[in-house]
Amino acid sequence: xxxxxxxxxxxxDLATGGADMSAAPLGGKIxxxxxxxLRDGVPWAPHGLNMIAFVAPPAAQSGVFLTAxxxxxxxxxxxxxxxxxxxxxxxxxxxxLDPQNSLYMKSFVDDVNGAVTSARQLGLNVIVSVQDExxxxxMTPTLLPDGATTRxxxxxxxxxxxxTGIMYERS
Length: 171
What we know:
Blueprint: E1 6-8, E2 30-33, E3 36-39, E4 42-43, E5 48-54, H1 63-71, H2 74-82, E6 87-93, H3 94-97, H4 106-121, E7 125-131, H5 147-160, E8 166-169
Parallel strand pairs: 5-6, 6-7, 7-8
Antiparallel strand pairs: 1-8, 2-3, 3-4
């Protein structure tokens, strides 16, 4: 991914789904300088992994994506942190998060929000990467961003804006 395709979340207060974030050990502040990512003002390259548990919403899950969703819990994030990672990239389903799509479910939005919030509480930086592929439930995948991507960011951005440890990825 080109660094120009990543943008730190910024703006309104971070919605936490009711979690108390005041004592959370949030990861460093991410900014961009030219073509470099900075964490707390120092050049930085994320060190972590991709999480596929949210690639597909429940109605479209099968195979490895169903298994990943069924087995996801916050202990995976704690293990990642214990292994020395500082970042997790959540790949998320565009159809499952687009309010105009038949696969949209508020509970899926809540699952994604909970995962991002849990990662931040552990001090991990987060990359939220919207996926629009057959495995994400899309019957006619298209290049992103498109109108559905804009609607998905309209759902997710208010949850995460204000937290400069979260980046949005444009696929």
